[in-house]
Each structure stands twice: as C-alpha cells, then as structure tokens.
Amino acid sequence: MAINLAIIDYGSGNLRSCAKAFEHVLGHKVNVTSRPEDLHSATHIVLPGVGAFGDCASGLRKIPGMVAALEKEVLHNKKPFLGICVGMQLLADTGHEYGEHKGLGWIKGEVRKITPADKTLPIPHMGWNGLEVTQKSPLLKNLSADVYFTHSYQFIAADNDNLLAVTDYGGKVTAAIGKNNIMGVQFHPEKSQNAGLELIKNFLEMK
After folding, report:
1. Are 156 and 174 in contact (CB under 8 A)?
2. Which residue out of 18, 85, 110, 198 is catalytically annotated?
C-alpha cells in the first residue's frame, strides 16, 4: 500500500522539521495541509502542536470542516493517527492551561501542569529522557534510546489501558498514549534522532 501522509497545518508551528523527519523515512514529500478534503485520500494523519492548549484547540476549530473531517477519517474510517506534543494533548477531554479548554475528547482524560516531587526541577521539562513502556504497542517497538521532551503540561489518562509509556521527571510523566488507531506522544520524534525516526517508521507501518 502506498503511504499518503497528511500533516495538519493549523497554525501551530514546527511543521517544517516535522515534515522533514517523515520525508526522511518515507523518501518522498509529504502533504502539509490545512484542507479538510485532503484527509479523505490520506492513509495516515499527523497532528503536530507547539504552544498553549487553548490556542491550538482554537486554531484547529477555526479551519472550517477540519474537526469533522478528522472525526470521519480517524474515528469512523480508523486511519492511523499520531498526535505530537500539544497535538497529543488535544486528544483529551479538557486542558487546564491558562484556563479550562475543551479538547477533542477522543481519549478520556485531562491535561494538567507537571508537578515534580523534586521542586528544584525546572518547568518546562526540557531535554532527553528514557521511556518506560507500560502497554505493548507497535508504535513503541524497538525504541531503546532516549527521546526529546519540551513541555510543561501532561496528559492524565482516565483509563490506564490508554497509557502506553511514561518518563521519569520527579515522578512518572505521561510520554505516550493510545487507543486502537489513535496514538499520541508527548516527546518530539522529529527532534529525537534515531529513536524518533524509528517511531515514525513504526507509525507508517500501521495499516
């Protein structure tokens, strides 16, 4: 099956480095798009995200028809979906960053500020950390190296079955979530060198 990847452009930034990482694995250009109709022909969909939860949620909803197209292709047609950083957080019911904001509600949970037990640890959490896999997932196979994080908030899943991996930052912090064809990572694959490329390869191999 030929892979037709759609990376959604909703004004969140960091699109070029994300696209380049996927292009490196695929060996060809990918479709960075703000057109809902492009999701119909996509085989895989990626929602990146940089910035505050509320701003990203608002930006996504401002594109006419985009949320409806996502729901059709991801929830109903079961296309593989990957949310990255805030793109993962938007899968939650609610985000508590500068107020309370409604997420997509695809995976039950909420997004709250990281509260390390060690109060000397700086927020945002930035840098390389290892992963502790909590649920087996094809997305995380062969990932043994550290990955790169930069975030102040984390996804708190209502159901531990949706928690795929955690990292340690003064306590356990959500690193990856998943539910059937819907997956999300808090870290940045495009900044995680070989481990990030391996994760991208794993995602693209999903049918």
Report:
1. yes
2. 85
